[in-house]
Structures are given as structure tokens and as C-alpha cells.
């Protein structure tokens, strides 16, 4: 009897592992930067090229960093949602305009609306390397002390917002002033 | 007519494809052949995270070009290969390495095949040993000897 059961057990174990493998998205990589300080940057602003924006400017508040570009198709999908969430006033959204032409990016925001408090221009993608960006759109949740608490790869959909991002933002907002 | 239409379609699509493209500066190889050789060796060991089954050396993706540029800059600044690999894994994780590190989580990956091999050898040898015992000629016991003689004797009488 046992000799017939062993192949069955092996088969079931293999099937279970393969089934688990099918549910996982190989493009969703766990960021190594979670609970680490957000990499420093100081970049020109998109709409005011003579001004810069730095991660230190946001110290003391919870904020989102959204990596976007006018050439990025999925960014278009999430854009109306970002506008809605920015208007809700729960958390300010800052943009990292990734490898984009300034005029294209500004035209894109004029056409579709601008959810960003400020967008930083990462023309050559060097700051994106520091953040471990491997495909736009990506969204980071950064806390009052400047630590990365969450990273989401792919468009921010209502499900992602209500189940993943918003709970973390609310929890971080509840926590006291910056350490 | 159809050729004209084909050209028209291309002309219509052309501006769209230009608009969609990301800004990518042309890749400038280093003028130092040592750096280019080091880059060629190192980038074979690194994964492009945009197209995950290609190395950084093979990938045409924009991110891969950016990372190759960054590696050139760091090599020029005198960083060792280990320092550059550390720089990359601090940002992208061990996944960027084509050759996974030997850590607790990768023990199964590294040693699993050898465990399977040893298990297979064990099964093979026990099976062979069992077969040899089965087919070995055994001397007859006293009881079997007596029965055999009886059978032979009974055959002679008939």
C-alpha cells in the first residue's frame, strides 16, 4: 500500500508548490529599502526649474513618492485615482518624474490634471537607482522621520489604495511627531 | 494602393512612438579598455530587473543602460567590483545577482540537488543489494534436501 502512496504524496507536494508559485507575481520584488531611510535627493522642480526639492523638505510629515513619466502607460491608469486621493488630503503626493522630457511631462499634467504637491525631475534616472526603481509607476510611503515604510510597484488602484497604502498612511499619521 | 496605405499607417504611428519613448541618452563606452572589460565581466553576473531573464550585459532596457552607466562611473572612481555589487544589492536586493548568495534561505537551492543525488544513490544501492540477495544461490536446507531426494526417488519408481 505504502509504495503506491509515496508517488501520490510526492505529486501532491509538487502540485501545492507549483500552485503557490502561480499565485505570485515574479515582477513584484520585495524592496530592500523598507524600514530604511529614504535615499537623499535634491532635484530641480518640474514646474519651477530654478527651484529644487529635497527629501529633507518633507521631514516631519508622512508623504508619498510616486515615480511617473508621460511615456509610462500604466501611469495613465492610476492618474485619475491619484488626483482623487490627493484631493482627499490624507497624504501629500510628491512626484518623481522619471526619464522624461520636461515639456512632455508638463503637457501631460495639463491634460490629465496634477495630483502632485511638487514633482521632482529625475532626468537621467540616477535618483531612481537609489530608490531601486525598476519600472514606473512605483509608489513609496515615507514616514515623518524620513523612513520608507511601504513600496508599491504598479498602478495605484482603489484596491491597492484602500488595502495597502491607506492603512499604512493612517497608522503613520497617528504616530506622534517626528523622532 | 495598399503600399500607399502602409506608408500612411507608418507616418501616422511615427509621432506616437516618439511621444511614448522614454528619455534615454546614448550609451557612451568608456575610453578605458580595462573598465569596459571589467564591465563586460561584471554585467554578465547581474540581472536586468526590467526583463528578468536577461543579464545587464544583454539587456536593451533603459534601466540596464542606466545601471551600466552607473557602473562605469563607479569603476572610473576606483570602486572595486565588490563595492559596486554591494551598491547594487543595497538598492535592488540579492535578486540582481544571477548567482544567488549562499544564505540560509538559499540552502535548499544550493544543496537540494546534492541531497536528491545522495537519496537516489541510497535507493539504487539498497535495490541492487536486495536483488543480489534475491538471486543468490542458496544451499538447500536439510529438510529441502530430503524432499528433493524423495521426489527423485518417487520418479525413479514410476
The rounded distance between the terminal residues' Cα atoms of chain A is: 65 Å
Q: Would you identify the CATH H-level superfamily of the largest domain in chain B?
A: Cytochrome C biogenesis protein
β-strand percent of chain A reads: 15-25%
Main sheet strand line-up of chain A: 5-4-3-6-7
3D architecture notes:
The complex is a heterodimer of chains A (179) and B (158). Chain A is an alpha/beta fold and 179 residues long. Chain A has one domain (33-174): Glutaredoxin. Chain A is 40% helix and 18% strand. Chain A has five helices and seven strands. In chain A, strands 5-4-3-6-7 form a five-stranded mixed β-sheet. The longest helix of chain A has 22 residues, at 2-23. The radius of gyration of chain A is 20 Å and the shape is elongated. Chain B is mainly alpha-helical and 158 residues long. Chain B has two domains: 2-99, Cytochrome C biogenesis protein (Helicase, Ruva Protein, domain 3, Orthogonal Bundle), CATH 1.10.8; 105-157. Chain B is 65% helix and 0% strand. Chain B is built from six helices and no strands. Chain B has helices at 2-20, 33-43, 62-76, 81-92, 107-135, 142-157. In chain B, α2 (33-43) packs across α3. Chain B is elongated and about 110 Å long. The model of chain B has no long low-confidence stretch (mean pLDDT 85).
Amino acid at each position: 500500500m505504502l509504495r503506491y502512496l509515496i508517488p501520490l504524496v510526492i505529486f501532491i507536494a509538487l502540485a501545492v508548490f507549483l500552485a503557490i508559485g502561480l499565485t505570485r507575481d515574479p515582477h513584484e520584488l520585495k524592496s530592500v529599502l523598507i524600514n530604511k531611510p529614504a535615499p537623499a535627493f535634491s532635484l530641480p522642480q518640474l514646474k519651477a526649474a530654478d527651484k529644487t526639492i529635497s527629501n529633507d523638505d518633507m521631514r516631519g510629515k508622512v508623504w508619498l513618492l510616486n515615480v511617473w513619466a508621460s511615456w509610462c502607460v500604466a501611469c495613465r491608469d492610476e492618474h485619475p485615482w491619484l488626483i482623487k486621493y490627493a484631493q482627499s488630503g490624507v497624504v501629500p503626493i510628491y512626484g518623481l518624474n522619471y526619464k522624461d522630457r520636461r515639456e512632455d511631462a508638463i503637457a501631460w499634467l495639463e491634460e490629465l490634471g496634477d495630483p502632485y504637491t511638487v514633482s521632482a525631475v529625475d532626468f537621467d534616472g540616477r535618483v531612481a537607482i537609489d530608490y531601486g526603481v525598476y519600472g514606473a509607476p512605483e509608489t513609496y510611503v515615507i514616514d515623518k522621520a524620513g523612513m520608507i515604510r511601504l513600496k508599491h510597484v504598479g498602478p495605484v488602484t482603489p484596491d491597492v489604495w484602500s488595502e495597502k497604502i491607506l492603512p499604512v498612511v493612517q497608522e503613520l499619521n497617528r504616530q506622534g511627531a517626528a523622532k | 494602393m495598399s503600399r500607399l496605405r502602409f506608408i500612411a499607417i507608418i507616418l501616422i504611428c511615427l509621432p506616437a512612438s516618439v511621444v511614448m519613448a522614454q528619455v534615454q541618452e546614448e550609451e557612451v563606452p568608456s575610453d578605458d579598455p580595462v573598465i569596459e572589460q571589467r564591465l563586460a565581466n561584471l554585467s554578465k553576473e547581474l540581472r536586468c530587473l526590467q526583463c528578468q531573464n536577461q543579464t545587464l550585459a544583454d539587456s536593451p532596457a533603459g534601466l540596464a543602460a542606466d545601471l551600466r552607466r552607473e557602473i562605469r562611473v563607479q569603476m572610473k572612481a576606483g570602486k572595486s567590483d565588490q563595492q559596486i555589487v554591494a551598491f547594487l544589492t543595497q538598492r535592488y536586493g540579492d535578486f540582481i545577482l544571477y548567482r544567488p548568495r549562499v544564505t540560509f534561505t538559499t540552502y535548499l537551492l544550493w544543496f537540494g540537488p546534492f541531497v536528491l543525488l545522495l537519496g537516489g544513490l541510497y535507493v539504487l544501492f539498497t535495490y541492487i543489494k536486495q536483488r543480489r540477495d534475491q538471486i543468490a544461490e542458496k544451499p538447500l536446507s536439510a529438510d529441502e534436501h530430503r524432499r528433493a531426494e524423495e521426489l527423485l526417488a518417487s520418479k525413479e519408481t514410476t
